[in-house]
Amino acid sequence: MSNTGLNGGQILANALVRQGVDIAFGVPGESFLPLLNGLVDHSDFRFITCRQEGGAAYMAEAYAKLTGKPGILMVTRGPGASNAMIGMHTAYQDSTPMVLLIGQVGTDMVEREAFQEMDYRRMYSECAKWVGSIDRVDRIDEFVSHAFHVAQAGRKGPVVLALPEDVLYAIGQENPVAPAHIIQPGLDVKIFDQAMSAFLSAKNPMIVAGGGNWNSNACADLQRWANAEGVPVATSFRSQDVIDNLDPAFAGDLGIGANPALVKRIQQADVLLVIGERLGEMTTAGYSILTVPQAKTKLIHVLSGSEELGRVYRPEFALNCSPENFCAALKLVKMHSAYDRSSMKRAHDEYLTFSSPVTVAGDLQLAFIMDSLPSLIPRDAIVTNGAGNFATWVHRFYPYGPYKTQLAPANGSMGYGLPAAIAAKITSPQKVVIAVCGDGDFMMNCQELATAARYDAFPIILLVNNSMFGTIRMHQEREFKSRVMATDLTNPDFVKFADSFGMPGFRVSKTEEFAPAFAKALASKKGALIELILDQEVISPTKLLSELGK
356-547 — its CATH code? Predict the structure, then answer.
């Protein structure tokens, strides 16, 4: 039955709840007060009040990755919308479903450059699947349904709904709509049979899995099939939890500083099956691992988004299919009896060798710290990170667990790790959540510790402090030796900063100091911040800063 006498904010609130939404992240604004008023009537709904829209956007994106449901972000017009852009770009490049709800000036003020007015269609044109404006109160349910369908269809991603203020106050009638369908492309059996015939005839086949649109069923099916048939599986940049890294089928990940043995194995594969990954710049090392536009290896490319097939690489076989539907079909495929199944073990052994900790100069051995974590935390612990050279250590030396244990931005966005970890603790409070951050990375959203304190969602933070923007300094020294500018940082006392939010803080400058500090962090009910003092010379696991540019 439809209700009359409700304002637009109440109708919108009811429409969101009908879509299964029970949590949103954001910063309140006067431009969408009727929506907040409408949500008051839904006692089970949680609005997570964040301290800046960028942090809120990261939390919504991380929530979506963990749950598979669209992350809901609510921000005010103009400045709020601008701050939210960074999380939307992350969601777009990471293929993460999100619905961004933005307050907007009233329909009677459009195109006057009214207070905080912006054209969201132009603003978000490069990082949203669809941008709509609800200009009529009687179309609210229609627009919400459309938004949730688009966000979850094909290659998933973010959508935007602008909310003119006068429409939110207008009285109207509900037109209730059932929850959106999740529409994913199915399998073209004819092309699948042709592609797998080529794969089965290969002497050195390889699989690269990653990107968006995965779920636990797809991951489990792929892992079981790869183990049964002896096929090695590599993962794309920051998709390492598609397959447990300790599983015998795992061959390593492609990304920054990839294992040279894995790169060689990919290049020497006679048939390469890529599932879910666009084959972007980071995974292909600047499009150098595979030749553009025609790879030398026979390429089978499986993607949920048809628009990405053939965009850079022209595959031998192109399948517009979701990872779940494709991996389910693998169950009936059997490798030829002549296939050498020992290649899977060799590939995994190469990964184990490459991920063994290496020693660098200085008292703090970050590789050994990351390598020690699996023995200290459960396999389902969630590890997050933002962007910076520090992430190289965690990606290389920490073996990620099963699906949904890694939260990291494939678009390389700084400031992601802390908000993502807070969202993870809100979503899964019983799990161990660790945010690995650089000092520059952490300070971009350090204010969200206030959010952690408000909702008692404290992660453990491993803060790698070298007092500089390390990645930029590395490139600077390599390209313009000793001509340094803009990369040194002045930091606060991080231990005192953590204490101000009720978190215990520890400063670790030697490797042997880490274990007792981490034990205290695990025992704490308020999480902890462990500052890891890293010498500026230690710019990567294998290079010193002074060695660059020579």
Answer: 3.40.50.970
